[in-house]
Amino acid sequence: MTDDAAPTVDPEETIDLLQELVRTPSPYFEEAEICEFVYDWLDARGHDPEYHHVSEPDITEYEGDNVVARLAGSDPDAPSLLLNAHVDTVKLVEDWEEDPCSGRIEGGKLYGQGACDMKGGLAAVMTAFDALADVPLAGDVLLTAVVDEEGPYGLGTDRLIRDGYTDDCDAAVVTEPGPILAQSDVENPALLLGARGRFLYDIEVRGHAAHGSQPEKGVNAVVEAGELAAALNDIETGDHPRLGSGSVCPLQIEGGSQTLSVPERARLMVDRHVVVGETMEDARADAERVVAELDLQSDVEIGFREAPDPDIVYGPYVTDEKHPLVTALADAARAVADTDPDYGYFSSVGDFNYLGDRADLPTVIVGPDGENIHGAGEFVYTDEVVEVADIVADAAVRFCG
């Protein structure tokens, strides 16, 4: 790509946009205000955005809207690129010593809930998209600012897939913060080429009630759930040459009461991160084997967290380092940052799993770094927000032609 074809991202506008995004509270399930802001920002720049409705009436009773905009290319046979970022944050943390939505800038850091995860990435992808409007493109670029990534089910990107928005895309970039959540130590510019998947065991343990003064006459479901949690914590998990090892983490045991009774019921929630090659049925079989080896007196039912639909699963994925999107991003990183990018893999899960696994799109995570994500004192490095915007815009031109 020649310098004449390079899109121009305005650094000051990018950080001003980021500050406005951070100053707009948007905990998951409460994104209406920020979605309106994103829509209006795109509309004011002539990008004809659309609201894409997201509804989940059965479990969460959620109603919301993604914001979608498209830059149409000149060649229907050219590759098209999806740019994805979520607008929501975790619930506002109480331990902040300042306004959690201040957007304060100091020492090259911008502070606020969601500044790094992922309003920095959202600002970068929005200004990159805006800059691309001034460059001739052969393939389409689709921008999706989505709701509910931080919530339990990733309903925004799930609905994009269900409604066919990803069908005509050839690859995806997700601007989540990369280095801070990578499996290994990497520094920006960094390209994360895959992620582990995740299942959440929801296990019911059914014992036998008895008077609490005579526990030997009952079967204590809480005790046996604890034994099961400890045993699951120690199971062997899969390994992958790029994604590393899987992991298991017991999260919660519920059961019993304050009455003088041996608990007859307990519920155990266990996180299971998996690598490519490990399926839900593999995870179920592992848990069933542990139960059999323990020879518990309780009846145990192995299940998984209830979901609005059975295919709402965070599957693991890996994108080939030689894929044209990866080479486009690597070349863009060299052009923008004058250095080769680091390569890595994400340690947890997010919308990129839906895109990389369920939608079967080669998906790369490239985003600005920071600290304290999901916690008080969260910040993002402002120079990296601008750098990511430049890299994404440059790479989009290289990839889409």
Structure description:
By secondary structure, this protein is of the alpha+beta class. It has two domains: 3-196 and 316-400, Zn peptidases (Aminopeptidase, 3-Layer(aba) Sandwich), CATH 3.40.630; 197-304, Alpha-Beta Plaits (2-Layer Sandwich). 30% of the residues lie in helices and 24% in strands. The protein contains nine helices and 19 strands. It has helices at 11-22, 32-44, 115-132, 155-162, 221-233, 280-294, 324-337, 351-358, 382-400, and strands at 50-56, 62-71, 81-86, 105-106, 109-111, 141-146, 171-174, 190-195, 197-206, 239-240, 244-245, 247-255, 265-274, 299-304, 317-318, 342-346, 363-365, 370-371, 379-381. The strands form five sheets. The chain has a six-stranded mixed β-sheet with strand order 1-2-6-3-7-17, sandwiched between helices. Strands 4-5-19-18 form a four-stranded antiparallel β-sheet. A four-stranded antiparallel β-sheet has the order 12-13-9-14, covered by helices on one side. The model has no long low-confidence stretch (mean pLDDT 96).
- Tell me what the CATH architecture of the largest domain is: 3-Layer(aba) Sandwich
The level of helicity is 25-40%
The fraction of residues assigned to DSSP E strands is 15-25%
Number of H/I helices: 9
The number of domains: 2
Regions with little confidence, pLDDT below 50 for 5+ residues: none
How would you write the strand order of the largest sheet? 1-2-6-3-7-17
Average pLDDT reading? 96
CATH topology of the largest domain: Aminopeptidase
Name the CATH class of the largest domain: Alpha Beta
Structure summary, number of beta strands: 19
SS-based class: alpha+beta
State the order of secondary-structure elements, H for helix, E for strand: HHEEEEEHEHEEEHEEEEHEEHEHEEEH
Family: Belongs to the peptidase M20A family.
Pfam family, one: Peptidase_M20
Domain Peptidase M20 dimerisation: 194-295
Keywords: Hydrolase, Metal-binding, Zinc
